[in-house]
């Protein structure tokens, strides 16, 4: 499946064909227009990652189209194709906002380079945009809290069920605040082995232990001037809770093996899906640290309490999946209804997973209720996968690759099973799978299920 989509605007059939063929070999889908009117129409209808336009078109000028894209789709990189030696118009196009140009006759190696750069820009920009989608009173309240908290330096503790958007909220607090130009460093406290925690957080000096062949910065140094987001903070072992408390109180750290304290200016945001106050009450989490990190609590409500947002979120997620696959997806009205009746124990992350699975399995571009597979609890993993092997001829030819993919699929399916059975409670799912919570987090990350 192509990962990107290009818009080609040229009235010469030979050039259109040459460009489309070259891009197709780069696994890029193309739409072509022979004039500006058609090009504008296509731009309105589809999501593109790069645009190549000729300068002289039957109904206008390529530079006007560059201007149009700048206004309507400022994220879309556009390059112009100019006549050989016509530097004047190439410069004009760059001034109008084109990111580059190619001259005719088109040198294919130059074209490929240019398109690769454009795609990198385009896909990176896509990833960099964070937005809290939703129009319900609950999410509006979260949005207005985010705006207020972004103006403050206070530590914020973000609570809420798994997959509600706690990390997204933390990123937004950072991005909308004075530290936006500095790093945002997310740390999954559940994924760091306890014995490595101190060196991961505070770094070490060369020679401080076997294997410390050079100085290494820790997460606090990496987040200097910015924000350190401590996700799953309830997973911190007691010994580390003491050290963290000290770092927050003193605003300084001591790397392993260092003689001196090091001042670090870092804003601390933290989160967990576990009831932290309860863990404090039964002695599993230090009360003094709780008071430090929980100066302000921001609660992100579960998706079932803002079901009006489901349709908006689904459209947003489908648009993102479309950008990645070059296809456009729509939900049938029955599918919309099914989604809005569902309780989403795994919250927005579960909605993302459901839609990703549906778009991958759905043959047409209209996703119907059945494609969502909401009623279906996956069957016993072994049998389900064994059936799939028989159905799929390519598995009979076991290359290393197929076997790996097969095993990864089984692992994914088993974990998804456990998560669905435990209504997305990761602690319970880990117990069911007979592995530690930490090991589950590690696997989720490795398999891209986070
Ligand atoms: N309101 C929203 N608008 C757009 N995307 C959202 C929204 N809420 C959550 N998401 C998306 O859902 C996914 C899960 O969100 P996130 O990782 O922030 O949840 P979380 O509460 O931190 O989960 P966990 O407790 O498991 O760490 C992410 O891809 C995030 O971008």
Automatic annotation (TrEMBL):
Listed Gene3D superfamilies: 1.10.8.60, 3.40.50.2300, Homeodomain-like, P-loop containing nucleotide triphosphate hydrolases
GO BP: any one term: phosphorelay signal transduction system
Record-linked CDD domains: AAA
Superkingdom to which the source organism belongs: Bacteria
ATP-binding recorded as keyword: yes
Molecular functions per Gene Ontology: ATP binding; sequence-specific DNA binding
Any Pfam family matching the protein: Response_reg
Annotated positions of the 4-aspartylphosphate modification: 54
SMART domains per the UniProt record, alphabetical: AAA, REC
Domain Response regulatory: 5-119
Keywords: ATP-binding, Nucleotide-binding, Phosphoprotein, Transcription, Transcription regulation
Ranges for domain Sigma-54 factor interaction: 132-360
UniProt keyword annotation of Transcription present: yes
Protein name: Two-component system response regulator PilR (NtrC family)
Species in which this protein is naturally found: Methylohalomonas lacus
């Amino acid at each position: 499946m192509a990962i990107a989509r290009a818009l080609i605007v040229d009235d010469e059939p030979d050039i259109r064909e040459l460009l489309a063929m070259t891009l197709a070999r780069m696994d890029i889908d193309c739409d072509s227009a022979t004039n500006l009117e058609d090009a504008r129409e296509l731009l309105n209808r589809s999501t593109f990652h790069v645009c190549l336009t000729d300068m002289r078109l039957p109904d206008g000028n390529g530079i006007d189209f560059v201007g149009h894209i700048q206004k309507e789709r400022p994220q879309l990189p556009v390059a112009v194709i100019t006549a050989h030696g016509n530097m004047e118009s190439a410069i004009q196009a760059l001034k109008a906002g084109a990111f580059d140009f190619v001259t005719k006759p088109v040198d294919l190696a130059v074209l490929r380079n240019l398109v690769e750069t454009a795609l990198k820009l385009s896909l990176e920009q896509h990833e960099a945009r964070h937005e809290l989608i939703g129009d319900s009173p609950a999410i509006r309240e979260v949005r207005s809290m985010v705006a207020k908290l972004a103006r403050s330096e206070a530590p914020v503790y973000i609570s809420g069920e798994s997959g509600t958007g706690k990390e997204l909220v933390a990123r937004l607090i950072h991005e909308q605040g004075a530290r936006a130009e500095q790093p945002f460093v997310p740390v999954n406290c559940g994924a760091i082995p306890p014995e490595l925690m101190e060196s991961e957080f505070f770094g070490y000096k060369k020679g401080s232990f076997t294997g410390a062949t050079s100085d290494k910065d820790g997460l606090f140094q990496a987040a200097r001037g910015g924000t350190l987001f401590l996700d799953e903070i309830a997973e911190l072992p007691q010994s580390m809770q003491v050290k963290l408390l000290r770092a927050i109180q003193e605003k300084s750290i001591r790397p392993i093996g260092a003689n001196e304290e090091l001042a670090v200016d870092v804003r601390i945001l933290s989160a967990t899906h576990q009831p932290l106050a309860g863990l404090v009450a039964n002695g599993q989490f230090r009360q003094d640290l709780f008071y430090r990190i929980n100066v302000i609590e921001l609660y992100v409500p579960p998706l079932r309490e803002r079901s009006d947002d489901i349709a908006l979120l689904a459209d947003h997620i489908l648009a993102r999946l479309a950008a990645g696959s070059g296809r456009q997806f729509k939900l049938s009205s029955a599918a919309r209804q099914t989604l809005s009746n569902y309780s989403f124990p795994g919250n927005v992350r579960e909605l993302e997973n459901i839609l990703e699975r549906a778009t991958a399995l759905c043959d047409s571009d209209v996703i119907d209720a059945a494609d969502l597979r909401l009623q279906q609890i996956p069957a016993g993993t072994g049998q389900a996968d064994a059936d799939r092997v028989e159905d799929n001829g390519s598995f009979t030819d076991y290359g290393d690759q197929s076997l790996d993919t097969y095993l990864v699929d089984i692992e994914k399916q088993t974990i998804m099973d456990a998560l669905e059975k435990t209504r997305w409670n990761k602690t319970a799912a880990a117990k069911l799978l007979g592995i530690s919570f930490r090991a589950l987090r590690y696997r989720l990350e490795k398999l891209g299920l986070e």
